[in-house]
Design brief:
Elements: H1 15-18, H2 27-43, H3 47-59, H4 68-91, H5 93-112, H6 117-145, H7 149-180, H8 185-188, H9 190-204, H10 218-241, H11 246-266, H12 276-279, H13 282-312, H14 317-323, H15 325-342, H16 349-366, H17 375-402, H18 410-447, H19 451-483
């Protein structure tokens, strides 16, 4: 049975997803708390990148170990998302969000005052652990709090803009804090953000624990976490060791094997960590595939464009961060100005597909960059178009992936969206960086290795990798166009006849 997109008639097994007829009058203040939590998680994926050179010099971290400042966070985050989502279903999403926020704040403070590289790495891993708990809780709270189609569209418009544009905010904030204060503030800034989010969650958010789920699937948790950890770690190591490395191949093969065992086990246990009913829906599958393939291209673009602006064009960290502002503005326009207005009336695929094609065109334009290209003529137009396309994509994709799910599965369904983002981003960084490096080496083999050739070779490598990113966005567009079939439905979900929502699972 297909799951409807937001604004569509819910299936008969989604009684809990419809929610109460009278919405909480303070729900928009609750959304502000959720938005702060999501912003904190997303910007932490990029804010530390700009601070890394200063942190490495200050703490004496070796070149071989510096990658772990990034990898420790992504490993824990990506590997524990499904477990974090199910814990939220069991203990309540509001409680999971608050615990995650407090833990994230403490871990961030620990990293901010770190006196050694080891303490910083441990703090980053702890950030990932608590991010895996709070991120699915935040998304599922949006899903179960906003059920009226037009309100849901606006709420997911805000959430989608933050989820898509938070990385650019991280680059801006990281540049400002690193250049004008100290790299430590790139971590310490999370503490006041988390405190505000906790206050908002306590005051304005409400949730109840699903009564039908009383046990945690330990076997599923071990298999899923182990498999995702191995895959994400293998992808991160591919960037350093190469795709033919025995370590990389063993990690990827082992991770895929554990995930295959996980699927088998989930079909047999009484209380699965990830019920297959969550995935056995073409609309949700289309949304997840679109998100995954899209983030492959997005994360790669952030990496290459950051290097291009700083290394090739000579931008400072602050200038680099500010250069991404048009992307954020485009995200807000695409998410709130376009998708949120259209989603209650237009099928999601008719928003996502043009959005993804627009983003693909933007990246194709970005392949024209040269060593001496102008930001205004070669980068700015691409960033604006890319932001609009991504904003029009992420908002309906996230809403579609979480709509119509039983309340008991809301957390784990949200975790699958975050997992698709995290794994897609890991693939993007590892795969596209390998493509760029190989293309640069091939260019230098033909044109020599003088300074001019090296600069041109690096830009050539970026351009080739961005073409690959274009391909991934086109695949995402195909997934959205073919798999997402649900159509909009009446505006007021609460007025559905009782017989339409009376049969639980």
């Amino acid at each position: 049975m297909d799951t409807p997109t937001p604004g569509t008639r819910p299936p008969v097994d989604a009684v809990d997803a419809v929610g109460p007829a009278d919405p909480d009058p303070r729900r928009w203040w609750g959304l502000a708390a959720i938005a702060l939590a999501q912003l904190m998680v997303v910007l932490d994926m990029t804010i530390v990148n700009i601070a890394l050179p200063s942190a490495q010099a200050d703490l004496g971290i070796s070149d071989a170990d510096r990658q772990w400042v990034i990898t420790a966070y992504t490993l824990a985050f990506g590997g524990l998302l499904l477990l974090g989502g199910r814990i939220g279903d069991l203990i309540g999403r509001r409680r999971a969000l608050i615990i995650g926020l407090i833990g994230f704040a403490v871990a961030s403070a620990l990293g901010g005052i770190a006196s050694t590289g080891g303490i910083l790495l441990a703090a980053r891993a702890l950030q990932g652990v608590f991010a895996a708990l709070l991120a699915p809780a935040a998304l599922s709270l949006v899903s179960v709090t906003f059920t009226e189609p037009h309100e849901r569209a606006r709420a997911f418009g805000i959430y989608g803009a933050i989820a898509g544009g938070g990385s650019a905010v991280g680059l801006i904030l990281g540049g400002l804090l690193t250049e004008y204060l100290d790299w430590r503030w790139c971590l310490l800034v999370n503490t006041p953000i988390a405190i505000l989010a906790v206050v908002g969650a306590v005051a304005f958010l409400h949730d109840r624990r699903a009564e039908s789920e009383t046990r945690l699937d330990v076997l599923g948790a071990v298999l899923a976490s182990g498999g995702l950890l191995a895959v994400v770690y293998g992808l991160s190591e591919a960037e350093q060791r190469g795709w033919t490395s025995g370590v990389v191949l063993a990690l990827l093969a082992g991770g895929l094997f554990l995930l295959a065992l996980f699927v088998v086990a989930e079909r047999r246990v009484a209380h699965p960590l990830l019920p297959m009913r969550v995935l056995q829906d073409r609309n949700r599958a289309g949304a997840l595939l679109s998100v995954g393939f899209t983030t492959v291209g997005m994360f790669g673009m952030f990496l290459f464009l950051t290097y291009y602006l700083q290394v090739t064009l000579g931008y400072s960290p602050v200038q680099t961060g500010l250069a991404f502002l048009p992307l954020t503005a485009g995200m807000m326009t695409g998410s709130l100005g376009i998708a949120a207005r259209l989603l209650p009336r237009v099928p999601a695929r008719l928003i996502m597909t043009p959005g993804l094609l627009t983003a693909a065109v933007a990246l194709a334009l970005l392949t024209r960059i040269q060593v001496d290209s102008s930001y205004a003529t070669h980068v700015l137009p691409s960033l604006v178009l890319l932001g609009i396309g991504m904003g029009a994509t992420f908002m309906p994709a996230m809403s579609t992936a979480t709509y119509g799910v039983d309340r008991r599965d809301a957390g784990v369904a949200s975790a699958t969206v975050n997992t698709a983002q995290q794994v897609g981003g890991s693939i993007g960084i590892a795969l596209l960086n390998t493509v760029a490096t190989s293309a640069t080496a091939g260019y230098l083999a033909v044109h020599g290795t003088d300074a001019a050739a090296q600069a041109a070779g690096v830009v050539h490598g970026f351009s080739i990798a961005i073409w690959w990113a274009v391909g991934f966005l086109l695949v995402a567009a195909c997934a959205a166009a073919v798999l997402i079939t649900a159509r909009p439905a009446p505006r007021v979900v609460a007025e559905l006849p009782a017989e339409a929502v009376a049969t639980p699972v």
